[in-house]
Amino acid sequence: MSGERGGLVERLLPFTVHRSPFTLLLLLALFACRKDSRTPVLVYSPHGRDQLLLLERAFERERPDIDIRWLDLGSQEILDRLRFERVNPQADVWFGGPTTIFDRGVQDSLLQPYRPEWADHIDRRAWGPEDLYFGVYRTPAVIAYNSNAVTTDEAPKDWDDVLDPRWHDEVLIRDPMASGTMRAIWGLVIERSINATGDTTQGMMWLRRLDAQTRAYALNPAILDAKLARREGLVTLWDLPDILISRSKGMPFGYVFPSSGTVVIEDAIGLVRGSRHPDAARAFIDFVGGTEAQVLAANMVFRIPARMDLERDEIPAWLDTVMRDMKVAPVDWALLARDGSAWMAYWDQHVRGTGRRMEARRR
């Protein structure tokens, strides 16, 4: 959970240098227990520390009467937590994740209606039913690789290229059961199977072949980054903003957009049903989709704004490259929302961990 609380402690330290450790501990305890008159807003989000801290600080400069707090969780983990807390909601805002996961939250009555001030500036297709959520970013999936070990020419150019023997035991995958991004990629693979053959068999076989290539399923994005940077695997499938953030910190990551088309997630935000601080939560939702925060997120954490009314001189140069290179694959999001959970359950029970056994039998 966030919260920069160091200012008072730093001011007190010069007066405690020559005092006993007990005195310092007492002062710290008194500081921790002091009453904070601000209205707390608890945000559940998969967007990671960099983005959440950035928006927390920017919003609190505008609204010093509100204290943004957050938990950084995977998209599926947020849905599971909100379900568990339904009778006693703790969160105020659900910020981030594919609309397919938000649709499952709608079915479980986890959200309450709120149409933010910026709603008319995004595509109507990114509006949730009955104003229960709204798209705030567009998040594409990419094929990423360790650029110290793999050249641009060597890197896979499309989804099927990741199955090449060259990448055997070199693929790293974020655990799909916890990740909305990975569920969307899996959904694209399976939907293509349905469109080509009428059922999911071909898609599941493709995922089994990918499983045979996979060295590890990473529990969270930080572990995925660390493994890729250490060459514990050379290739991964992940979302573009996280790859660009890591690269901006010096990690040796390159990426390509799959040539046959990639899944582009409408990344949503919504007000949690039973929010304890709904007015403050609505103010934060209005801020996140406002022009200032959209431009800030684009410049600092590589988010593609959902807003369609931003001036060209407000948009960073990297977005021009992305929009030029990115081919968006058609996706039936309603189908993924309806059947995605069943597909993932089948994959988890019958596909994960079976790829190498299948290869061994072939030999």
What does the model show?
This protein has 14 helices and 11 strands. It is α/β, with parallel strands linked by helices and 363 residues long. The protein has 2 domains: 189 residues, D-Maltodextrin-Binding Protein, domain 2, CATH 3.40.190.10; 163 residues, Periplasmic binding protein-like II (D-Maltodextrin-Binding Protein, domain 2, 3-Layer(aba) Sandwich). Strands 1, 2, 3, 4, 5, 6, 7, 8, 9, 10 and 11 form an 11-stranded mixed β-sheet that branches. Helices cover 44% and strands 18% of the residues. The N terminus is likely disordered. It is globular, with a radius of gyration of 22 Å. Helix 3 runs antiparallel to helix 11, helix 6 packs across helix 7 and helix 7 crosses helix 14.
List the keywords.
alpha/beta, D-Maltodextrin-Binding Protein, domain 2, eleven-stranded mixed β-sheet, disordered N terminus
Low-confidence stretches: 1-19
The count of strands amounts to 11
Sheet of most strands: 11 strands, mixed
CATH topology of the largest domain: D-Maltodextrin-Binding Protein, domain 2
CATH 2nd-level architecture of the largest domain? 3-Layer(aba) Sandwich
Look at the helices and sheets and give the structural class: alpha/beta
What's the overall average pLDDT, rounded?
91
* Shape field: globular
H-E order: HHEHEHEHEEEHHEHEHEEHHEHHH
- Calculate Rg over CA atoms: 22 Å
> What is the CATH homology-level superfamily of the largest domain?
Periplasmic binding protein-like II
Question: Per DSSP, what share of the residues sits in E-state strands of 2 or more residues?
Answer: 15-25%
Helix content: 40-55%
What's the end-to-end separation, in Å?
A: 50 Å
